[in-house]
Amino acid sequence: WVWWMFNAYLHCVALIAMPLPEVTWVLTFLMVSLFFDLERDQVGGLLIFVVPFIHFAIALVDLLMLVVIKWAVVGRFKAGECRFFSSYHYRWMTMMTIGGGAGELTAILEGTVFNAWFYRANGATVGRNCYLAGLAVEYDLLEIGDDVAIGQSCDTTCHTVENMVIKLSPSRLESGACMCPGSFAMPGSVLQEGAVLLEHTQVLKGEVVPAGEVWAGMPASKCKPTAPPRHVTGDYGLLATLELTEPKKAALCTLMV
Fold first, then answer.
1. Strands 239-244, 251-256: parallel, antiparallel or unpaired by DSSP?
2. Is 181 within 8 Å of 153 (Cβ atoms)?
3. Which of 87, 183, 242, 251 makes an SS bond possible with 179, Cβ 3.0 to 4.6 Å?
């Protein structure tokens, strides 16, 4: 019955959280209807200017509600372990579900200063002049320095699930670090100052990318990006020679990244 209760609870949360973007548009329509008679008034041109502002105001309220719910339901995320079906697991999955439902709202903030504000409001430590995109859940365990770039579809979540145990560890991106789109910094990892993860790179749990180094691959290893040969045409980007060390096999390979 524990499994059934857990899934029934998540379904109830999903029924409320998943339609959030649609609810925002419905509320926008209702607010417009309060001020204008859409059947009689000739307000077509005016609505082009009014609707975005009303929708923005409602979306802002939704985002503020997400922050309030995070602090009310979970409080501050802390490093440690938690077993499945515990109280913490319920609360953690609640935030995961609500975050998924609000994905379209939070995606609008990606790459803007407002996303840094949103991260800070949820408990993350964020420096100045940061480009933040991708996925984050346990904001309190995320430390981001100045001039950091986290590209689209990156993953900076601070949890793993191992043998039905949720394990949380803090991650740190020091000043000038860069995660190219699709890269993944697992919990407990550290990108030191000026470190770079190339596209679709996965840094393993607890690994440290030294300052100024460029890493690539899954799992990631140090690489030496070089300009492509002159005869190479098309959108190939850089050629990266990986330096793979144990336990990632002592070998060299060249990848297109």
1. antiparallel
2. yes
3. 183
